[in-house]
Design goal:
The structure is a homodimer of 332-residue chains. Chain A is built from 13 helices and twelve strands. With 332 residues, chain A is of the alpha/beta class. Chain A folds into three domains: 6-49, lambda repressor-like DNA-binding domains (434 Repressor (Amino-terminal Domain), Orthogonal Bundle), CATH 1.10.260; 63-164 and 297-321, Response regulator (Rossmann fold, 3-Layer(aba) Sandwich); 167-293, Rossmann fold (3-Layer(aba) Sandwich). The longest helix of chain A has 16 residues, at 296-311. Chain A binds a DNA duplex (30 and 30 nucleotides) through helix 2 and helix 4.
Chain lengths: 332, 332
DNA sequence: TCCCACTCTGTGAACGTTCACAGAAAGCCG
DNA sequence: CGGCTTTCTGTGAACGTTCACAGAGTGGGA
């Protein structure tokens, strides 16, 4: 029992391939009689379009590849990825575009992604957590394939449109809040300085604190919970009298909380802790985190929109920056 | 500038299409002279195989679809999914098979998945968190498409091979441990009773407790943190003197911890809490969770193996059940 | 009435592979 | 030397669509 083809439908409807193809693709020059006959024939035969055959001639695949650029050990700790992936799948599904997931954790992976895209196996690329100076990005830009990023790709802001939260302003909100709460020695644990979140959240921090943001009050993490623990330990050592810390992600903040607890500091009485992301861990820590909510789902939706627009041949309307909001819980 | 095709390679190497195709597919009847010429030609022209064209004739796509069957609100809270997805991608990549991600949160989604598979757009299906009685599964089985599941598909254990942790024995380990610690009134919060984890972890619990596992000591959650909170509240109301609770997932256990804290019960002094999964939340709670580690990555690897074997036309060697281990932290 | 525009339809070619087949060349055995 | 097997190669057809083109029918305006 072979699957029915467009020929079978045409025969059943008493028309030709061409006409069937026209209704399949929404061409307007089809008589209502033919259209109805064809629709009946499709239902009767159980015909399903063969996208492979279509792709061969249209040079379009109807799929998009999402590239996750985290090293393997670390990947996916961040619950935000899940939201982004889910939202993107849904957004693309409305246009019947499917989502292929690839990793770019090492050079072999990146090579594979390049081959995949260069081979024309995807109509567009959705970049996630791409670090500065990624060679793969150079190749993609050179190829001119439609691309979009969730969070800016550093150094490629003008070539690859993106959707992101307003990291800098979010960091300002949190820092201002800590200041307003009367905190005087405010430290920060940043993200990696080759990611937009790492850079801009630190910028927001220094925007508010000015020269009070001394070197000793700044340390760097890599988004992992473990790096939050060790970062907090370093800060306590360098500045034992700190009374607040702005941690650039909730996951790192969870790590910072454990270190503080082990050091016998009460949160928020002795040290206030501010996170960033409002991810699911924010409510499972003790105490629950005061944090900055970023509209991850909205950003993913916007990114999908930007990507589809490019695939349709339109010029994307620049980056989309979304506002953040302060969520006060108990840690600060 | 068109991309080079197999014709261009053939011309550059001074052979015919057929011979090029043979080296591309690893056929042994090719002279070393031709083979070398062709390999040079491929490198020089920058040729990349067009999988679409290949798919059209071979009826194989070189891709597999992973289906996530959680309702949209809830999906992805569980960090284990991330591990599974990542591991599956890596495993498939070694065979140059790509992974398409689809959701099956509502009927529309499921319909889309069916259309996709029926249309022959994937060589196999990787089922994640599929609930009992899912109509989509019936269709897939009927279609006879290679399929595999992470965690048994209830009612389809014999038709769809799977890889899973030994949920029942894991639950026994935890329950035994609680008993050994001298706990006398042990309750449990289960997962949904249409999932294997929900059913089997409860079975393990009653295996150990026998008739001591009274109705009042059993309540059901849906894997979410919130359901852990409310489940714990119900238990405290029904059985105020309980001194331990086995929660069928870490995420729900995190919820249970908050409820206990709000109720003024100390963990583990007043109430011991045992989780299940050893997911990332287990270490961010306070106190850190004593839990059951399941080899999620191993299970994903095995599932990929089972799937690829079927795609290669072999009979899968039955379900793979992997051992769990007790991880003692501070909550019990 | 004639011409043109518009609507609708069918047909052949093309997309870039693989596959089956046929046939050439080479080696071996009696 | 003749025939048989093995190795190697080229060719036409096929996979299931879309697309461009040509042509038929219809209606309206000059």
């Amino acid at each position: 029992m072979k699957r029915p083809t467009i020929h079978d439908v045409a025969a059943a409807a008493g028309v030709s391939r061409g006409t069937v193809s026209r209704v399949l693709n929404g061409d307007r020059y089809v008589s209502t009689a033919s259209r109805m006959a064809i629709e009946r024939a499709i239902a009767e035969t159980g015909y399903i379009l063969n996208r492979t055959a279509r792709s061969l001639v249209t040079q379009r695949t109807g799929s998009v590849v999402m590239v996750l650029s985290e090293p393997h050990e670390k990947l996916f700790e961040d619950p935000n990825y899940s939201t982004t992936i889910r939202t993107a799948i849904r957004g693309l599904a409305t246009r019947d575009v499917s989502l292929v997931l690839m990793m770019a954790g090492d050079d072999g992976d990146r090579e594979r992604v390049i081959r995949y895209v260069r081979g024309g196996h995807a109509d567009g690329v959705f970049l996630l957590s791409t670090h500065a100076g990624d060679r793969m990005v150079d190749v993609l830009v050179e190829l001119g394939v439609p691309a979009v990023a969730q969070g800016a790709v550093i150094g490629r802001e003008s070539q690859i449109p993106y959707a992101a939260a307003d990291d800098r302003e979010g960091a300002r909100q949190m820092t201002r809040y800590l200041v307003e709460q009367g905190r005087r020695r405010i430290a920060t644990i940043t993200g990696p300085m080759d990611t937009p979140g790492g850079i801009q959240r630190l910028e927001g921090f220094t925007d508010v604190l000015g020269r009070k943001a001394s070197k000793k009050l700044i340390t760097h993490g890599d988004w992992t919970q473990l790096s939050g623990e060790s970062g907090m330990a370093r800060l306590l050592q360098d500045t034992p009298d700190l009374d607040a810390v702005f941690v650039a992600s909730d996951l790192m903040a969870a790590g910072a909380l454990s270190t503080l607890r082990m050091a016998g500091r009460r949160v928020p009485e002795d040290v206030a802790v501010g996170g960033f992301d409002d991810s699911s861990v924010a409510v499972s820590t003790h105490p629950p985190l005061t944090t900055i909510r970023q509209p991850v789902a909205r950003a993913a939706e916007e990114a999908v929109r930007l990507l589809l627009a490019q695939i349709d041949g339109q010029r994307p309307d620049g980056p989309v920056i979304l506002p953040t909001t302060l969520v006060v819980r108990e840690s600060a």
